[in-house]
Amino acid sequence: MSLQIQANTNDGLIKKLQDCGVIKHKIVANVMKETDRKYYSNLLIPYIDRPEMIDLSAYLAAPHMHAYALEKLVDFIKADSKILDIGSGSGYMAACFARLIQARAVETLKESTGYVIGVEPHQKLVETSIGNITADNPKLIESGLIKIFEGDGRKGIQEFGPFDVIHVGAAIPEVIIELLMLLNLNGRMLCPVGDTEGVQQMIQCDKNSAGEITKNVLTNVVFDPLIDPLDISPSTISTDGNISDTTDESSNTKITSSGFDESQIDIDEDENTLRDTNESLNKENIANEKSQPYLNLSDQVTQREEDESIASTISLKSFAMESDG
């Protein structure tokens, strides 16, 4: 049975998430306390641990899902980190990431030189998120610490990369090679991958100093698809708001938009060993709250860390690319 968490204040909500073990790092708790959910929610009392529709095209994820993602990414965020938030929605996670950069700067007595780039496919949500963040703390936008762009984020945004952290806040059918190529050495990407009409797996991709990718299956989740199926095919987003096809000029190779070519990738992974880490997903909730970000909280409290996830190492050199010449 899932735990019911509700509070009258933002601090109270975060304290309860700490008490049940979802939030483990003090720095994550502090950042979530500073980023009051009321600025990003339409509810009169927003401190309830459940997803919320904020627009006809998007949901605000449940607080425990925000905490879960931050916990997985916090160790990769430093004062100079470049962070890409794809499907940035309400702007909540972008604000949390920005505050983590600031907190790391204070912690290490270094200058805060990092930034957060949000990419959101829906113009109305871009405007809403900028308004939300400005209401929370206008300096986050005014200082350039956070920039939000409209566009299809499935190919990232090359002008500001490579990124130390990439967070995908909506479901994608497969891990996208263009995003992995934008991930910096010793960086981490977190994304929900799978059937965009049902349950997905939260996938964690780490790139080591040699450029090798280690993929971990963490848990089952339910997210909205990154874009409407009727929308255009993947393209990069330029800072002037235009969308264009992309070519990797450094290697004179055109990057395909289809993601992994399973027949040409050397992955040492036994698909039969992929374990269902969240068998108690509430089927009724999935039916009634279709495609809302969901993770069984009681399972999360007892879930072991990454050493129990299924890992496979992939070298970027083994990805098949289509020659442009």
UniProtKB/TrEMBL annotation:
Annotated segments matching region Disordered: 234-261
Keywords associated with the record: Cytoplasm, Methyltransferase, S-adenosyl-L-methionine, Transferase
E.C. code: 2.1.1.77
GO biological process: methylation
Entries under InterPro entries matching the protein: PCMT, SAM-dependent_MTases_sf
GO CC terms in record: cytoplasm
Record localization: Cytoplasm
Coiled coil stretches, renumbered: none
Listed Gene3D superfamilies: Vaccinia Virus protein VP39
GO molecular function: protein-L-isoaspartate (D-aspartate) O-methyltransferase activity
Family classification: Belongs to the methyltransferase superfamily. L-isoaspartyl/D-aspartyl protein methyltransferase family.
Protein name (record): protein-L-isoaspartate(D-aspartate) O-methyltransferase
Species name: Polypedilum vanderplanki
